[in-house]
Amino acid sequence: MFVNRRDVQIRWGDCDPANIVYYPRYFAMFDDSTSIMFEAAGCSKQDLVHKYGLVGIPMVDTRAKFHIPSTHGDWITIESRIESIKRSSFEVVHRVLKGEALAIEAFETRVLVGRHPDDPARLKSAPFPQEIIDRFMNG
Fold first, then answer.
1. Under DSSP, is residue 120 helix (H, G, I), strand (E, B) or coil?
2. CATH superfamily for domain 3-138
3. Keywords assigned by UniProt (predicted)?
4. Closest by alpha carbon to 99, among 120, 74, 119?
């Protein structure tokens, strides 16, 4: 299974007055990590739009378990992978490592969407193209 890893340095603006990362900043990092994971698998946003006729991959559910805090200047590694794929939805798992220690486990449910064929102002879920499934499931 395809896993994307990226190193992130915690910046001043990521932290609250107690100098620990303000938790919504992690969710922004996870959103970026999902997009970066698609690009690393060879499927850019432009590919999704132009090649597959999709509009995006909005999040419909998210949660996280926080184990170890991070502070300004720390380096963390975010490992992102797709856990499962259904017809149009998929589950993403992010593991945040601080050194060798597991700092956070985060989970997202996302859906592929395109324009509704009867009303282009509306969105409609779209089936996962087999080519993209193969890229993520075969590593």
1. coil
2. Hotdog Thioesterase (3.10.129.10)
3. Hydrolase
4. 74
Whole-number Å distance between alpha carbons of 26 and 24: 5
Query: Domain spans of the chain?
Result: 3-138
Under DSSP, the state recorded for 84 is E
Q: Does residue 73 come out as left (phi exceeding 0), alpha (psi in the -120 to 50 range) or beta?
A: left
Instruction: Read off the pLDDT of residues 14-40 as tens digits, 9 standing for 90 and up.
Output: 999 999 999 999 999 999 999 999 999
**CA-atom Rg of the chain in angstroms:** 16
Are the beta carbons of 65 and 105 closer than 8 angstroms? yes
The candidate with the shortest Cα–Cα distance to 128, out of 139, 112, 116, is 112
Please give the full DSSP string across 78-96, using - where no structure is assigned. Answer: EEEEEEEE-SSEEEEEEEE
What single letter denotes the amino acid at residue 18?
A
